[in-house]
Amino acid sequence: MTILAYVLARLCPDTSEEVLEDLSNLDMVDELSIIQGPYDVLMKIKGRGAKEVNTFVESLKMMDFAEVVKYPRVRTLKKKYETTRIDMEKLSPEERIESFAEVIRGYLSEEAIEEASRCVQCPKPFCETGCPLGMPVSSYREDLDARGYLGLIASGQFEEAYRLILTTSPIPATLGRVCHHPCEDLCVLGHRGEPVSICRLKRFVADYMYEQEKHLAYTTRDIFREFISGVEKKKQRVAVIGSGPAGLQVSFDLAGLGYNITLFEELEVLGGMLRWEIPEYRLPKSVLQKEINNILNLGIEVRTNTRIQNIDNLFEEGYDAIFIGVGAPMSKSLGLPGEDLLGVYPGEDFLKDVNLGKYIDFTGKKIVIVGGGNTALDSARTSLRLGAKQVSIVYRRRRPQMPGHSHEISDAEAEGVLLFFLAAPLKLIGEDKLEMIECIRMKLVEADESGRRRPIPIEHSEFLIETDVFMPAIGRGTDIDWLNSLELSEWGTIPVDEFGATSRPGVFAGGDVVNGASVVVEALADGKRAAQGIHKYCQEKL
Ligand code: SF4
To answer: Fold match between 3-70 and 233-329+478-541?
Structure first.
């Protein structure tokens, strides 16, 4: 069955077998599979009777496809279900480890159009249900006469796509580089091939706009300001503590509703974990800064180098509501013997130091990292770029269980990072300075309550790895003892309701301080929900 026949069967369940077969037998349709024009017609006849469907199929038979495909909005899916995505060019592994230059080059316009055109425009886009932010990826928008931002990209309307993405989040170029893209996991093309590169296309439109604005009479800052033009300024003030993804999102959303926002950040620079945890080669600081500047351009007051220690003071200063998005910045220790030796450097602290500009020279050093997430991978790849001779990651489960993004794992391997699976450290050995790590081999037994198979040590399988530096990278914890006026969980996080409200009226929270160390898009979604909660709270207070 062609995709067209399949879609027709889904939209109009009373379509007869003969009609579907007739449709499947159309050579041209089979070759083209699905085209935008007929799809639009399909949407119009959705739910109607067999008569309209028959008329539609008859009109398809009459169609001159050679002419139809010349029409600019007509996009073809040439390989039904056997799809491969358009790859983005990457620096070679040899080039990569020589510098912190961005590894993945963006799409060219033609590539982006071709990739976006792979979307078969599912009547109910599964991709959108997977996005915690509810991004308008590919559902039909009557106001734009397009199928989400993929449809706009496919027809070359990049600025419109950028504007549409901004209605959901202000940091598309950032998100397009670091999101773990749960949308793509649900894309139907993934069942028989590679899903549409939804995330990279988001990056493309933002990069395109930031480049194009150099030649335009207006900039993306002007586009941002459209969000507040005509919005009545409110008297109420909101304090946002922490400038990571959750804080940026909540600031953007509330500024768009006319609130007066003050963004507090304890460091000198904004961005939170986006700045201090993600290396330059994955997320250039200039890209992040550009998007932060656009948000600040909405009239947000910023107070950097300001560590808030008491929320009562903020209420006394006249803030009507407070959002806490201070993340989970504390590195965790493994509690191993010898962890106080010189040469132990938690991965999170290491990345923070490097990303904030500290000079570290690992020339000729051997580094061992424990963990399986992106922090472990980033610590390893950053160590290579700082001259390390040998970098190894020790992980207690197998490769498929590693929580790091699969392409980051492959990239790390290609760059020369050694991966030791089914192994765990037992103790660190050295006089004053670290010299070796004793590890033990593991095996996986039955699943625990998390559903993952549990690793247990294999007796008498200890082995030694020589090393100069040991980096535990096993997750981050929060630092919120100062929030003792709020109810806190036993895991040191802040419990909130569905709109980010904490146990204290007027105080909201989101991001890692609520979820524990989690992913960027979840923090953004928390910020979005909290903005709605704060808006509702402030309106009720009036
Ligand atoms: Fe397009 Fe994939 Fe979304 Fe379907 S699930 S609408 S193919 S991006």
So the answer is: no
pTM exceeding 0.90: no
Which tokens go with 523?
Answer: 């923090």
Read off the pLDDT of each residue in 204-224 and give the average, rounded to a whole number: 93
Q: Which fold has domain 334-475?
A: FAD/NAD(P)-binding domain (3.50.50)
**Cβ of residue 496 lying under 6 Å from some atom of ligand 1:** no
Closest ligand 1 atom, residue 147 Cα:
6
Overall fold of domain 93-217:
Fumarate Reductase Iron-sulfur Protein; Chain B, domain 2 (1.10.1060)
Protein residue whose Cα sits closest to atom 1 of ligand 1? 119
126 lines ligand 1 (CB under 6 A): yes
Compute, in angstroms, the gap from residue 77 CA to the centroid of ligand 1: 12
Within 8 A by CB and 6+ apart from 216, the residues are none
Centre of ligand 1 from the C-alpha of residue 171, in Å: 22
Q: Quick check: CB of 139 below 6 Å from ligand 1? A: no
Looking at the CA of residue 186, tell me the nearest atom of ligand 1. 5
Q: Mind listing the pLDDT tens digit for each residue in 354-412? A: 999 999 999 999 999 999 999 999 999 999 999 999 999 999 999 989 999 989 999 99
CATH number of 233-329+478-541: 3.50.50.60
Q: Is 103 in the pocket of ligand 1 (CB under 6 A)?
A: no
Q: Is 176 in the pocket of ligand 1 (CB under 6 A)?
A: no
3-70 has which fold?
A: Alpha-Beta Plaits (3.30.70)
Closest C-alpha to 261, from 540, 43, 538: 538
Strand-pair partners of 436: 429, 466
Is residue 3 lining ligand 1, measured as CB closer than 6 Å?
A: no
Q: Is 135 close to ligand 1, i.e. is its CB under 6 Å away?
A: no
- Say which residues have a Cβ less than 8 Å from residue 403's Cβ, sequence separation at least 6: 372, 373, 374
Q: Are 495 and 480 in contact (CB under 8 A)?
A: no
Give CA separation, 355 vs 351, 382, 477, in Å: 6, 10, 19
Is the Cβ atom of 188 under 6 angstroms away from ligand 1? yes
Q: Determine the atom of ligand 1 nearest the C-alpha atom of 138.
A: 6
Q: Are 60 and 38 contacting, i.e. CB atoms less than 8 angstroms apart?
A: yes
**104 has which bridge partners?**
90
Q: What digits encode the pLDDT tens for the residues 126-174? A: 899 999 999 999 998 888 888 999 999 999 999 999 999 999 999 999 9
Mutation test of ligand 1: which of 6, 84, 119 has the most ligand atoms closer than 8 Å to its C-beta?
Answer: 119
189 lines ligand 1 (CB under 6 A): yes
Q: What are the extents of the domains in the chain?
A: 3-70, 93-217, 233-329+478-541, 334-475
* Rounded CA Rg of the chain: 26
Q: Among 347, 329, 180, which residue's Cα sits nearest to residue 243?
A: 329
Tally of helices (H runs) and strands (E runs) in the chain? 24, 16
Residues 10-35 have pLDDT tens digits of: 555 555 666 656 655 554 443 333 44
Residue 533: both structure tokens together: 């909660």
Ligand 1 within 6 A of CB of 201: no
